[in-house]
Design brief:
Layout (H helix, E strand, L loop, with lengths): L1 E3 L6 E4 L4 E5 L6 H6 L9 H15 L3 E4 L12 H14 L5 E5 L16 E3 L4 E3 L2 E4 L14 E4 L5 E5 L5 E11 L2 H11 L8 H9 L7 E4 L27 H4 L9 E4 L4 E4 H4 L4
Parallel strand pairs: 3-4, 4-5, 5-6, 8-9, 9-12
Antiparallel strand pairs: 1-2, 2-3, 7-8, 10-11, 11-12, 11-13, 13-14
Helix pairs in contact: 2-3, 4-5
């Protein structure tokens, strides 16, 4: 069972043996991207760490799972990241027994920055009980289809609101969308160059020994609330599918138009199609 920790951009996964806190998209070192444009912001990593330590102190998870994008630079590590990331994770060692990171698209050259005790998981994702976790910039492994629920990051979901005077605000949200297991199974098999025989479900059972069970997808808000995001309710229907972030969301297997959106405090805002009129 996974539970969002309202009003925080984090969730808690409880099994019979352990409690695992789940977060996504730290983007440590994002300030350097601004510095390159002449905008100098002091490092915000201590604030991120303080927020995360407060959560682990309150909810006392044994483990921590990060759904990708620990750092901000993509292929390499910047000078600030060499300082901030080791300190960040060494402090976390005092809070949780085990930390795992699912590799994101910003996590190139991440290994040298992490303590040896941190486990790096593939971008294709992992399963924990009934739930499959992945970052979102790559296709997940077909083995995740055996889970009823998938959870991803990567998108930094926000929705925008505009009043009649033109004043505009945006807010981070959780997104819950229905997922068509047959459609997602078919496309994942194709991406793995596996020919569908009879039905996608039968082919999945033959090659991976699992049943396709996925019915819903959650998109987590970024833990780093200094980051922006592309408002999901601003995408027009006439825009190409390539404008959608992440291959799974572009696949047509996830019903994003009718996806439910929730503020960080749990307030239900409506579906994305309903919110398009407010952006």
């Amino acid at each position: 069972m996974i539970t969002p920790l309202f009003p925080h951009p984090a969730a808690l996964l409880k099994t019979q043996k352990t409690r695992t806190m789940v977060i996504a998209d730290l983007h440590i070192g994002w300030e350097m991207a601004l510095a390159e444009k002449g905008i100098h912001v002091p490092t915000q990593t201590p604030k991120l760490l303080k927020k995360l330590v407060a959560l682990t102190t309150t909810y006392k998870p044994q483990n921590l799972l990060i759904l990708g994008d620990v750092k901000h630079t993509v292929a390499k590590a910047g000078i600030g990241e060499w300082h901030d990331i080791p300190d960040f994770f060494n402090e976390l060692k005092k809070q949780v027994q085990e930390t795992s990171v699912i590799r994101g698209n910003h996590d190139g050259s991440l290994e040298p920055l992490l303590p040896e005790t941190v486990k790096i998981q593939p971008a294709t994702g992992i399963t924990m009980g009934e739930i499959g976790f992945f970052h979102g910039h790559q296709w997940p492994s077909p083995t995740l289809l055996g889970c009823k629920t998938l959870v991803m990051g990567h998108v930094h979901p926000v929705v925008a609101f505009r009043d009649p005077a033109g004043f505009r605000i945006s807010r981070q949200v959780w997104v819950k969308a229905d997922c068509n297991a047959t459609a997602l199974t078919k496309v994942l098999l194709q991406k793995h160059k596996i020919k569908v025989e009879k039905t996608p479900e039968e082919t999945l059972r033959k090659h991976f020994k699992i049943n396709a069970r996925t019915t819903q997808l959650f998109i987590m808000p970024s833990f780093n609330d200094f980051l922006g995001g592309r408002p999901l309710n601003e995408r027009r229907l006439d825009q190409p599918k390539t404008d959608i972030v992440g291959p799974v969301l572009r696949s047509g297997a996830v019903n994003m138009e009718n996806a439910e959106t929730y503020l960080l405090d749990g307030t239900f805002l409506g579906t994305l199609s309903q919110l398009k009129t407010l952006s």
